Amino acid sequence: MKKIIVSLVCLISAMSFAQMTMKKLDGTPLNDGDVIAYSVLGDPNDISSSDPAYLGFKIYNSSNSSISVKMKCISITGGATGTNLQFCIDPICVGTISVGNSYPSNGVSTVPANGQNGNFDHFVNFDAGTGNSIVEYVLKFYMVNQFGGETGSSITLTYRYNPNLNTSGFSSLNNAGINISSTLVKSQIEFDATSIGTAQLYDLNGKLVNNINFVSGYNTINVSNLNKAVYVLNFTTQDGKNASVKVIKQ
Fold it and tell me: What is the pTM assigned to this prediction?
């Protein structure tokens, strides 16, 4: 009896010190709290790692014992229903997930000692939600012990589809009557417009960082307080024309 108890204690102790990490297929680390933003929807007829909406990932195990991993859906927002997607974690692949449920529903995904789970696991979204809102899936990856209880540190990721990040290019700017002096800026964005409208500036995580009403003629947008990065600038004119372009803050 004592041997059984000692063995169980050792096993539970080993699980508590096991380390789970995650990376994208290209080796980029995925950290707890990361937001992975996409400007396009996946193609349900051609699901592959080359799809620009495809989040492929690997789960790594740095311990000398195999670990058991599950994913729990924490929330789904933006009008998405959780039914128009694909989520795969070895050995299962599903087209529907529900808030509060964990996957695999029956069983676990086993990651070998000092190893990783291959190139199979991924998440890709096909659902535009309401059509103009940001769609987010908050997914928690965690280890479980032999009793099914959560153990160790978890990694929670947000998969975000943001239609505001989808740029239409310079032809749409011309069509909307917008002429930008330069997309390489330091303290302000300068542009001319042939009509009035609104302009929104987003970072690549989909956060709105500036919002202005512009006039017919010369306009500026102050970006002096923003970090050096790439941003997406969206325009909507009074007569309903839309245009968007990426700008680089130096």
Answer: 0.77
